[in-house]
Amino acid sequence: MKIKLNSLVRTYMINEKKVQAVQNISLNIPSNKVYGIIGKSGAGKSTLVRLISLLEKCDSGEIFYDDERVDNLNKFQLINRRRRIGMIFQNFNLFSSRTAAQNVAYPLEICKKSKSEIKKRVAELLSLVGLADRADSAISTLSGGEKQRVAIARALANNPDILFCDEATSALDPQTTRAILSLIREIQQKMNLTVVMITHQMEVVRDACDEVAVLEKGSVVEVGKVSDIFLRPQSAVTKEFLAHLSTVDPTVSTPNLLRWSNDGGKYILRFVGSKTGEPVLSRLSKKYNVEFNIRAGGIQHLSEGDVGTMILDIMGEKKEIDNALDYLQKEGIIIEENGEVS
Known about the structure:
Blueprint: E1 3-14, E2 17-29, E3 34-39, H1 45-52, E4 60-65, E5 68-69, H2 75-82, E6 85-89, H3 100-110, H4 115-128, H5 144-155, E7 162-166, H6 174-191, E8 194-199, H7 202-208, E9 211-216, E10 219-225, H8 226-231, H9 236-243, E11 258-259, E12 267-272, H10 280-287, E13 291-302, E14 305-315, H11 318-330, E15 334-337, E16 340-341
Parallel strand pairs: 3-8, 3-9, 6-7, 7-8
Antiparallel strand pairs: 1-2, 1-4, 4-5, 9-10, 11-13, 12-14, 12-15, 13-14, 15-16
Helix pairs in contact: 3-4, 3-5, 4-5, 5-6
């Protein structure tokens, strides 16, 4: 199910002032992919997902699921369309008075499915998310990761063709976050779902998404494949997200990006694929009369391959530095200097 947004606008009145939460956003979200929408708090991402998921109407613009326009559906059509949309939230939104199985059964009960059909479907879904043995457990006895697995199972109850995840891992620790993201990707591939992930964490985009749109102040400032965004970030907000990727995760033996000096760092080098394992700087120092002061380094593991990042200073005569930079570019290394990508 592909999603197309044409010039979406949504404005609120807050304290008698107009606040444009979504400003003329147009996006093409591909079918059967995990698509990320990332932005800081107040960027408009939660408003955008409410519009895309038909929980709220836009002031103007158009929303298409495949080639069907859906923002102008009547009440009956809207109810039917929403039943084919799955939603996962940050705070799980589970019924504390119901067991895990009863929570998963709820949307099926709303659709008036038979008891035998509900029982069979609930068992399938709990097995899918790895909770077959917790069906009769009270919600209060489940861990945060288990609660989110129940929420995922419930979101899939009516066989949706689109799954929205609104900050679905923000309340979880890093290890549980990775497990949940891995589960979502596995389910997406098994069920050929279109998954839209709303997040303020670049780690989520890196670990789960195929493509991403970056939001700032209600507008899209950058869009593309995740690998391209990591290699050639264009907007200031994207570069800031990349600069603040978690540096050391105690549950991972190899840090994603380790910075041991906050001084200097005029150049950011980005290596892709096999280049991440090659001694490029060693070769460079033998060819040109330059010295290096490495400030940070690490490797990001993306679904399409690895991207290495190194922050460093290069010292020497200008001609030698220019020759060194030219050599790096010929070797396929992407160089960013003073915010400019070359």
